[in-house]
């Protein structure tokens, strides 16, 4: 659905156009009102507007000037000009400012609806083009390096995807490799000299190192690389010619890759005046979990190279894990982080994350008490962070589970921990749901109190300013909670107040019109009759 903004220095006309035409029938979801060009720009800064209808002659910022200002920031917005003057010069300027339509006052309702319908059709055509398959492909190709880097990051972090999903994503980023393609992983650490430079020079040097690697390996191998969270560059090295895993680790292939890695160190030192350390993995198939290869390589790098400089850890030198060696629960630390899901109230995603954590705990660790403790402390930390980040207390969110938290970890089985964390998350979720509902109830009360106290000049924008919220968000929340839009509510409130004054006060009709926010008595009479079926005077006489 689309959003419309009507701009005119005659508030009665704006209100009439906003409330009396069947905008929803042509796809308009919300109608905003402004009495001047500057007010219109303020609304557009806080609310996404699709179509603007503006009078051409207004004090200060004219309609033409307003359209030119809109074009500078919101070039996609469609603008329709209303003019009381059949002036060729105005029409020329309207064409130059790319106004969608130029209509003469008084404009018929159907003519205006047709103009807005046309503007919406043009918007739909434009966005269809932007989101078309061809545009998507062009955009992907333009951003291939970034997309490839993001995919490699996801695989290194252990993101789960089926063989088919992986092959589809590889094809999307135009990497000519398959799940059974052999590869070696190379970890590259840039050392002191590179980080003594300023940020710009350091980035340029990193780019140069990657270019040298492409040049050295490029004749026989294909490289796919990204920078990880530790500052290492992770390279996947694939053979350009089809081969098998058995053929890859032949003496010649291993020696070739090691020689090229040594050449890379040499040329970086020679031409860039800095040192790098490298670690190479054993060859394996790409369908095997990259995250396991990556974690093993990082561990070997830290154990064997440590703080030394200008080292090359070759394929045959890897430290193999010992029997019974402890490992962390990878699902606890892979994105999305549990703390972020709980903070944002993404409850279904949090449930899925918990399922993955406990699946790993049960499948790989059994009832290892140390791993139960690891999961407990990590999950409690995430829960505590989310609750405090939302400015709440653990005691008020967790209820009875808080006492168990104070007592410390007392779980001896995975099932006990799962039961407790499920209850704790459920209690927190319930408290957050109540908080949202309480907040909305208070918001509705504030809106209605303000409208009742400022009936003559209340509008969606003035109410939004009063409650410090975006008009679009306020409008949606109010309609969601009450079933009635704010503009409809204000119109109904004004008519009810007018009816009460007609029955109980001696005020003249023009005075009542002014009290409920209508400057033109004729327009007030028209709106009143449309609501009650009779004129204000007939209502009073009756």
SSE layout:
Blueprint: E1 2-7, H1 11-20, E2 28-34, H2 37-46, E3 51-55, H3 63-73, E4 78-83, H4 88-96, E5 101-104, H5 109-130, H6 133-142, H7 144-156, H8 163-172, E6 182-190, H9 192-195, H10 199-217, E7 221-227, E8 233-239, H11 251-272, E9 276-280, E10 284-285, H12 290-305, E11 312-313, H13 330-333, H14 338-344, H15 347-365, H16 369-389, H17 394-398, H18 401-407, H19 414-453, H20 460-467, H21 471-482, H22 486-504, H23 509-515, H24 521-532, H25 536-541
Parallel strand pairs: 1-2, 1-3, 3-4, 4-5, 9-11
Antiparallel strand pairs: 6-8, 6-9, 6-10, 7-8
Helix pairs in contact: 2-3, 10-11, 14-15, 14-16, 16-19, 19-20, 19-21
Protein name: Response regulator
Main location: cytoplasm
GO cellular component, one term: cytoplasm
């Amino acid at each position: 659905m689309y959003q419309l903004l009507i701009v005119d220095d005659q508030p009665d006309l704006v209100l009439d156009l906003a409330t009396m035409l069947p905008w929803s029938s042509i796809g308009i979801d919300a109608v905003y009102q402004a009495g001047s060009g500057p007010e219109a720009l303020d609304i557009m800064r806080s609310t996404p507007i699709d179509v603007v209808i503006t009078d051409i002659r207004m004090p200060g910022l004219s309609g033409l000037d307003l359209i030119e200002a809109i074009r500078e920031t919101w070039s996609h917005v469609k603008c329709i000009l209303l003019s009381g003057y059949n002036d060729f010069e105005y029409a020329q300027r309207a064409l130059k400012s790319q106004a969608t339509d130029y209509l003469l006052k008084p404009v018929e309702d159907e003519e205006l609806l047709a103009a807005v319908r046309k503007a919406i059709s043009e918007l739909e055509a434009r966005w269809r083009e932007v989101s078309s398959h061809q545009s998507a492909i062009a955009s992907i190709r333009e951003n291939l390096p970034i997309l490839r880097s993001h995919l490699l990051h996801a695989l290194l972090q252990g993101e789960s995807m089926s063989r088919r999903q992986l092959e589809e994503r590889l094809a999307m980023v135009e990497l000519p490799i398959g799940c059974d393609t052999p590869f070696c992983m190379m970890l590259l650490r840039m050392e002191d000299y590179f980080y003594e430079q300023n940020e710009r020079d350091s980035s340029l040097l990193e780019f140069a190192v990657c270019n040298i690697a492409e040049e050295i390996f490029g004749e026989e191998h294909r490289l796919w690389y990204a920078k990880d969270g530790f500052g290492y560059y992770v390279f996947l090295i694939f053979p350009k010619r089809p081969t098998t895993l058995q053929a890859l680790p032949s003496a010649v292939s291993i020696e070739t890759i090691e020689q090229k890695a040594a050449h890379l160190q040499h040329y970086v030192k020679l031409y860039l005046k800095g040192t790098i350390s490298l670690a190479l993995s054993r060859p394996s198939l790409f369908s095997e979990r990259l995250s396991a290869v990556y974690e093993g390589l990082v561990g070997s790098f830290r154990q064997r190279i440590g703080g030394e400089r200008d080292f090359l850890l070759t394929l045959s030198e890897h430290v193999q894990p010992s029997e019974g060696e402890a490992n962390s629960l990878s699902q606890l630390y892979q994105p999305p982080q549990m703390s972020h899901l709980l903070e944002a109230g993404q409850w279904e995603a949090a449930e899925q994350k918990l399922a993955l954590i406990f699946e790993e705990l049960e499948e790989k660790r059994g009832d290892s008490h140390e791993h139960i403790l690891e999961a407990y402390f990590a999950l409690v930390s995430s829960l505590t962070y989310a609750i405090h980040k939302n400015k709440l207390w653990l005691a008020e969110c967790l209820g009875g589970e808080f006492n168990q938290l104070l007592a410390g970890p007392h779980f001896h089985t995975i099932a006990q921990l799962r039961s407790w964390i499920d209850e704790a998350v459920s209690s927190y979720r319930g408290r957050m749901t109540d908080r949202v509902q309480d907040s909305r109830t208070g918001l509705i009360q504030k809106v209605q109190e303000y409208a009742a106290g400022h009936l003559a000049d209340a509008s969606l924008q003035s109410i939004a300013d009063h409650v410090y919220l975006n008009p679009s968000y306020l409008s949606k929340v109010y309609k969601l909670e009450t079933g009635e839009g704010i503009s409809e509510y204000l119109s109904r409130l004004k008519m009810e107040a007018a009816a009460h004054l007609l029955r109980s006060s001696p005020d003249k009709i023009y005075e009542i019109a002014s009290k409920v926010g209508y400057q033109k008595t004729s327009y007030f009479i028209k709106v009143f009759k449309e609501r009650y079926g009779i004129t204000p005077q007939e209502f009073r006489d009756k």
